[in-house]
Amino acid sequence: MTLSKHGPGGTEVEIPWCHALRCLRCRGPLVSTSGLLRCDECAAEYPVDDGIPRFVSRDNYAVGFGYQWNRHRLTQLDSHSGMPISHDRVMGASGWSADELQGKHLLECGSGAGRFTEVLCETGAIVTSFDISSAVHANAASNRRFPNLRLVQASVYDLPFPEEFFDVLFCFGVIQHTPDVERTFKTLFRYLRPGGRFCVDVYAAMVAYTHPRHLLRPFTRRMPPARLYSLVEQTVPRLLPLSTALSAAPAVGPYLARLVPVANHRHLNLRDPQTIRNWSVLDTFDWLAPRYESPQPRRRLERWTRDLGLREVSIRRHRGLYVIHGVK
To answer: Is residue 31 predicted with pLDDT exceeding 80?
Structure first.
């Protein structure tokens, strides 16, 4: 079974991987019919939105993420910045190499605009990437050139994939922004085969990493995305120079800079002023907009990995994150 979509110039393009998708209701295989995916076993139907199978409603808790990633589709792509920032983060945190990933079935959970999707596709892995938000369309616009990319819009709690199918599991910047972080973490591993490798990150608990944005979020997370974005766009140019000046103070600079609720990527050595501003606007909005944000303590993460019987587990602190990787 193949699913047809319109490609550049209106030509028909085949997506031969749709046979691998499963019905959310009965787990039966899906077939394409009249621009939909249909389950022959229970007659459930799922829309196809610009070539991307959609298994969630348009109106969901991640609407703010869709807004930000479609506004900043290119900002964090290595191919746009000319710097290997996303590449170094993926490979440095996971310890994986391109040779290890080539030809492997890899599940990327919560792709956003596709900054990490690009890196993963370049390894030659067969990358299945999903996001609950409309950010999948930003990802498609940037990365559809990769023949080894499969994009789906779906919820982590209800994925249209066979269980224990994927060789590699990758999830950065996602699980703290879901309604139930423990359920999210444990659900992901249903789709990783025994012996498969994983790398997941999560915000570190506030007892270990405090930030004044936590005082603002009760107000900002309720604001319409467009209004909040406008406020962030106006505020960042005023606060970013202050944050940069404070961060330069000997010894205590990083701690003082945290007092200013604006994202500062001084450590990335970005040089173009517009690029610096764009990264700051994007990540400041990313701090303030999500409906959910639940940083986690290390002991809880250790318990979850024990509950799942994961092996060779490493939990490392990197700035405000814990990075967990190992083997199922």
So the answer is: yes
Structural domain boundaries of the chain? Answer: 1-52, 55-204+297-327, 213-288
Which architecture does CATH list for 55-204+297-327? 3-Layer(aba) Sandwich (3.40)
The DSSP code sequence of 84-143 is -HHHHHHHHHH---HHHHTT-EEEEE--TTSHHHHHHHHTT-EEEEEESSTHHHHHHHHH
Asked whether residue 5 carries a pLDDT value surpassing 60, the answer given is: no
H or E element in which residue 54 lies: none
Maximum separation of any 2 CA atoms in the chain, in Å: 66
154, two tokens:
């779906």
**What pLDDT is recorded for position 9?**
38
Burial 295-317 (b: 16+ CB within 10 A, else e): bbeeeebeebbeebebeebebee
Tokens 């990769």 belong to: 146
Average pLDDT, integer, range 19-40? 87
Say whether 270 sits in a helix, a strand or coil.
coil
Eight-state DSSP code of residue 26: T
Give the pLDDT mean for 190-195.
98
Q: Which residues contact 146 (CB under 8 A, 6 or more apart)?
A: 118, 121, 122, 127
pLDDT value for 58? 81
Contact 139, 131 (CB under 8 A): yes
Task: Compute how many other C-beta atoms are within 10 angstroms of the C-beta atom of residue 8.
Answer: 7
**DSSP type of residue 205:** P
Strand order in the sheet with 149-153: 149-153, 126-131, 105-109, 166-171, 192-203, 321-327, 311-318
Q: What is the pLDDT of residue 14?
A: 41
Q: Confirm whether pTM is higher than 0.85.
A: yes
Identify which of 44-48, 223-227, 257-261 has the greatest average pLDDT.
223-227
